[in-house]
User: What shape does this take?
Amino acid sequence: MDQSKSLAPPQAAVRPVRSLLHGENRVDEYAWLRERGDPEVTSYLEAENAYAESILASTNLLQESLYQEMLGRIKQTDLSVPYPDRGWLYYSRTTEGSQYRVYCRRERDVPGAPEVVVLDLNRLAEQTSYMAIGAFAVNDSGQWLAYSTDETGYRQYRLQVKDLETGEVLPGVVERAGSVAWSQDGQTLFYSVEDESKRHYRIFRVSVSAQGLGESTMVYEEEDQAFSVQVHRSRCGRWLILTTASHTTSEVLLLPADRPMGQWQVVVGRIPEIEYDVAPHGQTLYIRINDTGRNFRLVRTLIDQLGRDGWEEVRPHDANVMLEGVDAFESHLVLWEREAGLPEIRILPLTGEAIRRLSLPDAAYDVSPAPNREWKTHLFRFHYESLLTPPSVFEEDVFQRDRTLLKQTEVLGDFDPTRYRTERLSVTASDGTSIPVSLIVPAESDAGPIPLLVEGYGAYGIPYPLSFSSTRLSLLDRGLGLASAHVRGGGELGKAWHDAGRMAQKDHTFDDFLAVLDSLVSQHRTTKDQLFIEGGSAGGLLIGAVLNRDPTCCRGALLQVPFVDVINTMLDASLPLTVGEYEEWGNPHEAESYRWMRSYCPYTNVREAAYPAMLVRTSYHDSQVMYWEPAKYVARMRARRTGDAPLLLVTNMGAGHGGASGRYDRLREIALDYAFILWVLGASSSLASGTCSDTSAMTVS
Assistant: This one.
């Protein structure tokens, strides 16, 4: 990799900040990078961007080729599946050349009814480089839309109300807004707001009229900094639901939707380490709760007789099956479960019929609810996709047991699923635990080891999705394979799987990932010289910790908005999310928590070693992992590492945690990531077209 004509790598100034914690003298040489808005900080980030651009200048044609390939697979002008809601059909559409969606509706039972534009994000984004929609709720009469937008990527939303009959936005704005819910009268709006640390801590009520938003009244305040609040309306329409929750404990309050000025009623008082949520069914309440086991059970009771003595168990706790959620409809319940690492859908008719599991076609897949706004319906919609199946929307008739494919995302070009092969592997970790691994490779890859990109996350009990990606085809068509390591700390195998990879057990997450890498190499599926690893956010912590433990484990690494400065962030309770995160990572002010965090914190443990090629991405307006974490990490890495492998920091100066908001801008980011991988591998020019299936053409420089 010839870097002789590139700029010199930036060297961040060393300004040590010293502290003493639990008897250890700590030094942070780059704490000054926290000074957001300081011209020197901006200059450093821009210098890193310029350096990365110069290093990757030789890949510009490849980046453009990748971008055009990925763009060529997308149906740029497209329409989502319309969903019914109180006399209307709602949908969104995209138009070629436009970055964002346009949200629309038309009258449901009027043939040829004209389209009504509800919200055009392209118009809202005309004066900004970033645009994201948050809340989107129409009142019962269909006249007013409560919506919120973020114009920076900091996930700080501004709430407004639009009159859908006149097209005018009503006077009145709510800053720092979160969840919203309309009362039954359609004139009272409830909403949450966040504090300076981005914790949603208050619920307000406001009257809405043609004159705008009235004076807001606070109806609830959560004083415990570990808890956040949200509000929503039940599908049956009869109840407003206020939920306050930490990572391990929750509490729910109910209010009749036709009595917005009434008093909220607690369902179950707050009990440490007990989580629950509710699905109202008229005057009956279904409660999903983990009081008898970590994987939750389902009970029901009458709302006017709340109290644990009157509970009737509907579905008992199962140590092998995680009950992830419950949707209530007039005639049935939909249970979202996870078994053997895969999501399942079960239908529970309320007519006395037996529960049944929906059959799903692939051996490994991802499934989730589609918009299901109607209460009185026997039809149920869900999203389905797999590593080889493009995103699809199905509609199930729960009583006739008929299923209709309403839409499958069209992949343009020469997409042929038979050209690829998927596998589900099991890797044994150092303590004997079996770690699931999902793999997709070119179908003709049996001849020997191939370049492989391995992804991981392993935090918050969140399963790593087995989703389809048309952009991924650009790597597969160049002879690369992709794997997802479902390590402990995630939610693939229930709450116990999460527990085994958090707090004092966090080392399991890193051990599992290294075991997966070792297994893939020992099975001759790849070699260390062909192996890349990737993780984002908490997954970036995973990658950073793994690289410190074994810098020779791979050829290159991609860290997306990585949470790498764990100790310094968790020491600062003023930062967004910190206090609530104590239940995931621990509190380093406590000696025991500090001890285990000290052992793996990526920034703390950067050492003198020959690290592999690295591309680190961050966003200036990220509110979840502040930009300075990756910036400090790269600065320390430059100062301490040995060897000359590429180390690049790319900062999106106009985005947040999710990167670019525009769909075309996002493709550009992915094209750069893929070009980096191919460049580090020393890909020959024949791979630029994406038609080479012979991985021997991928030479290592």
